[in-house]
Protein: 2-dehydropantoate 2-reductase
Organism: Vreelandella neptunia
Amino acid sequence: MTTHWILGPGAIGRLLAHSLSPIATTTLLGRRALPPRQMLTTPEGEQYWQPLNSLTIAQLPSNTPKPPAFVHITTKAMAAESALAGITDCISPTTPLVLWQNGFLAQPRITQAWPGPVLCATTTEGAYLTGDDGVMHAGRGHTFVGDLHDQYGALAEELAQTLTQAGLAATKVCDIRQRLWQKLAVNAAINPLVALNDVRNGELRGEAYAGHVVAVVKEVAAIMLAEGIAPPNDGNGEDAWLALVWQVVENTANNKASMLQDVEAKRPTERGAILGPLIGSAHRHGLACEVLKGLDDEMAELEASF
Ligand SMILES: NC(=O)C1=CN([C@@H]2O[C@H](COP(=O)(O)OP(=O)(O)OC[C@H]3O[C@@H](n4cnc5c(N)ncnc54)[C@H](OP(=O)(O)O)[C@@H]3O)[C@@H](O)[C@H]2O)C=CC1
Ligand SMILES: CC(C)(CO)C(=O)C(=O)O
């Protein structure tokens, strides 16, 4: 059985641990101890209890489990590098890492810094925690796996097959950078607006917000062009991006977006990983980003008030 360490025992981390445990040796690594028996609620509402192996990072040096074939990093984007730094003394520098973060912050930085393979996973699986001993798998999705320089295709294929076998449908891809930026574009158009206005995704279609969505997408589309990110669905520029955003708004109309959930819980949001790379790119390419910058400033002010 392959060995998977999962660093960051949150919603995605525990969903992975529940899914992989029947076919692989897994260890969840976190900052706090977790109850050993953990519950998974499936999208169909079934509930399963399973013992999940977990350790705190402080316990790791004296309890080091079998060396991992993969270390999955499942923290939020802004915590990924510091979480990795907390375990580097306990793993070989050639260990393959798998980054599950949204946005495009941790991926280029860790890919540049880590000597071994770094795979990135972008997923439409949906999960949230129901307590220290439970995770809700809210919706099934699909996961795409690849590395930024398309150097580790065989490893990405092996991981995609393992995830699929574990019940999390996955495909190896050669264009993970494109896919990460495409998801980031959609997240930038939806997440800050719903978080700032305390509305569900579907409300963006209303008169009060639709114009703002269009203004964000206008800036995002120009940035995507400069970054060489193909418009979605073989479409053309701004219209294709806007169509994708409206489609996601429609499909997730009843969702409370992740950034709104973070604001409600007074947790730091992933704005740095979503708006940050867009604003950075706009500056590099001399493009307008007043709307994105405005959203980032408002989000920063909101977070400072927590
Ligand atoms: N949930 C979802 O449906 C989806 C999430 N994603 C992405 O996946 C990533 C993870 O999201 P999600 O699982 O929802 O987030 P959660 O907040 O549920 O989980 C993050 C976990 O990371 C832990 N953590 C934070 N810092 C460290 C550290 N230094 N060392 C070890 N563990 C640490 C937290 O532990 P603690 O309790 O100690 O804070 C928490 O358990 C995000 O980038 C998100 O955008 C992508 C698609 C869907
Ligand atoms: C697509 C969207 C906005 C769906 O809610 C999402 O990915 C999120 O909540 O972060």
Observations:
- Residues 177-304 form a domain with the N-(1-d-carboxylethyl)-l-norvaline Dehydrogenase; domain 2 fold (CATH 1.10.1040.10).
- The chain has a mean pLDDT of 97.
- The pocket of ketopantoate (ligand 2) is lined by residues 186-187, 190-191, 201, 248, 252, 255, 257-258 (CB under 6 Å).
- The radius of gyration is 19 Å.
